[in-house]
């Protein structure tokens, strides 16, 4: 896995940008306190502003419910903005697809050969249910991607240093994630969401050199301002992680 530090990223004031030949990926931060909450008027305004900033025809997102449900987006098809799910797959060019987070894990997947992309929201429930693995399987089945070409980008999220969970939830994860070493999965009651995501990616066949992670914790990062639901005790600030195919 490649840990992407701030020197590697094309860091704008409001975004971490990753530019590929066939795509642009953005992970928003909170440096300007911009919130991309779909449930507020200001949040919708911020989301729509991405069209001009990134030259997109549309910005597509979901009503996230902490599930393992995955939807495909087809341009000029049925709107999915009010559909309940936690991952989007598309092959449409010039369309931003993205997910909202404020501690949960955002994952972006892209196959530049087949020109297929996905955006995933993985909280503890989605992580427990392996939504990342299931998204890749759907991409294989419905878009015939070659997983050897698939690249994964894991955005800022609450990390093992700060994510304490209940004893009950700890036991559930230990019972479910049997192939992950207990000492890697937990430190006390602090859960490592990323190690579960990495397990899913590797089980799906993604090569280690194609896995990338921005090594920032939403809760304790001092280098960059990030929205943290837990740290702010439930405020409505949201980050938006997205990809646009070119």
UniProtKB/TrEMBL annotation:
Catalytic activity, reaction form: S-methyl-5'-thioadenosine + phosphate = 5-(methylsulfanyl)-alpha-D-ribose 1-phosphate + adenine; inosine + phosphate = alpha-D-ribose 1-phosphate + hypoxanthine; adenosine + H2O + H(+) = inosine + NH4(+); adenosine + phosphate = alpha-D-ribose 1-phosphate + adenine
Keywords: Hydrolase, Metal-binding, Transferase, Zinc
Pfam families found in the cross-reference section: Cu-oxidase_4
InterPro entries linked: Cu_polyphenol_OxRdtase, Cu_polyphenol_OxRdtase_sf, Cytotoxic_necrot_fac-like_cat
Any one Gene Ontology molecular-function term assigned to this protein's record: copper ion binding
Keyword Transferase: yes
Function summary: Purine nucleoside enzyme that catalyzes the phosphorolysis of adenosine and inosine nucleosides, yielding D-ribose 1-phosphate and the respective free bases, adenine and hypoxanthine. Also catalyzes the phosphorolysis of S-methyl-5'-thioadenosine into adenine and S-methyl-5-thio-alpha-D-ribose 1-phosphate. Also has adenosine deaminase activity.
Family to which the UniProt record says this protein belongs: Belongs to the purine nucleoside phosphorylase YfiH/LACC1 family.
Xref: PANTHER family: PURINE NUCLEOSIDE PHOSPHORYLASE LACC1, UNCHARACTERIZED PROTEIN YFIH
Name recorded for this polypeptide: Purine nucleoside phosphorylase
Organism in which the protein naturally occurs: Clostridium chromiireducens
Annotated gene: yfiH
């Amino acid at each position: 896995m490649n840990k992407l530090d701030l020197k590697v990223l094309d860091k704008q004031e409001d975004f971490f940008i990753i530019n590929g030949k066939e795509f642009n990926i953005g992970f928003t931060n909170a440096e300007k306190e911009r919130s991309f909450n779909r449930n507020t008027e200001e949040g919708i305004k911020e989301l729509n502003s991405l069209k001009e900033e990134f030259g997109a025809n549309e910005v597509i997102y979901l009503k996230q419910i902490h599930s393992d449900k995955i939807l495909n987006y087809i341009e000029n098809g049925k709107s999915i903005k009010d559909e309940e799910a936690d991952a989007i797959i598309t092959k449409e060019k010039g369309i931003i697809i993205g997910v909202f987070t404020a501690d949960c894990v955002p994952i972006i997947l892209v196959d530049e050969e087949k020109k297929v992309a996905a955006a995933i929201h993985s909280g503890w429930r989605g992580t427990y249910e392996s939504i990342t693995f299931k998204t890749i399987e759907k991409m294989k089945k419905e878009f015939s991607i070659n997983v050897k070409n698939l690249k994964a980008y894991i955005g800022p999220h609450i990390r093992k240093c700060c994510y304490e969970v209940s004893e009950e939830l700890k036991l559930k994860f230990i019972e479910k994630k049997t192939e992950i070493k207990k000492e890697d999965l937990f430190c006390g009651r602090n859960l490592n969401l990323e190690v579960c995501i990495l397990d899913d990616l590797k089980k799906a066949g993604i090569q280690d050199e194609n896995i990338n992670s921005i090594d920032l914790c939403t809760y304790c990062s001092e280098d960059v301002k990030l929205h943290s639901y837990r740290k702010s005790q439930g405020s409505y600030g949201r980050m938006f992680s997205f990809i646009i195919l070119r």
